[in-house]
Design a protein that fits this description.
Blueprint (H helix, E strand, L loop, with lengths): L1 H23 L20 E5 L3 H14 L11 E6 L2 E5 L6 H12 L12 E7 L15 E5 L9 E6 L4 E5 L5 E4 L6 H7 L3
Antiparallel strand pairs: 1-3, 1-4, 2-3, 4-5, 5-6, 6-7, 7-8
């Protein structure tokens, strides 16, 4: 009976530690950085709706600080205010596809801002390159939309839909794009990226 109690306590402590790392912004992903040649003429763009200007600046700063020592090539994020709570983010030096994917997620679920009591919508668009690990080479050169799936409860996955309607998911526990049958693309995200 005592060993069961000890096991339950250990499991609870591990769960608390993992949650604490997520909340403090500790990068628990130890994924090796795949090769990447930045393209200053890239078309990567993200629209985000729901944060104000001060919050967007904090999100960008926190994100770059979180991944600054992970071996990714230098990048810059340029926010442009479109409306009071709507921003367009571009990447003049380009950004590694994995960081681009992480950033779509981070804009929806930043570490130190309350995202639970507001509506945040994030949608990105890019032309796919070979650096998108797990995406079939037949999609290279095609446009794709990256977004948080509708009804998301995990906070660690980004979806991608091709112009053809084929969809992929990238769970941060596996760090690889895998095809999915259910796109879970909300009308809010569709509307957000329609003008991109």
């Amino acid at each position: 009976m005592a060993w069961v109690l000890i096991a339950v306590i250990l499991i609870a402590l591990i769960a608390i530690a993992c949650f604490s790392f997520r909340e403090k912004g500790v990068s628990i992903e130890s994924t090796p950085v795949s090769s990447f040649t930045p393209n200053p003429a890239n078309d990567k763009v993200i629209f985000v709706k729901g944060w104000n200007e001060i919050e967007i600046q904090k999100i960008i700063s926190d994100f770059t600080e979180t991944y600054k020592n992970d071996g990714y090539p230098a990048y810059a994020i340029e926010p442009q205010k479109k409306e009071e709570y709507l921003f367009q983010l571009t990447f003049p030096k380009d950004i590694h596809p994995m960081l681009f994917t992480f950033f779509v997620n981070y804009l929806a679920y930043p570490f130190d801002l309350d995202f639970k009591n507001r509506s945040v919508v994030v949608g990105g668009k890019t032309t796919l390159s070979t650096e998108f690990d797990g995406v079939d080479s037949s999609f290279v050169g095609k446009k794709a939309v990256l977004y948080i799936p509708q009804g998301d409860q995990d906070h660690d996955v980004v979806y991608m839909q091709m112009e053809s309607g084929i969809s992929f998911a990238n769970s941060f526990t596996e760090i690889k794009w895998k095809r999915v049958d259910d796109a879970r693309l909300s009308s809010e995200v569709r509307s957000l990226v329609a003008g991109i």
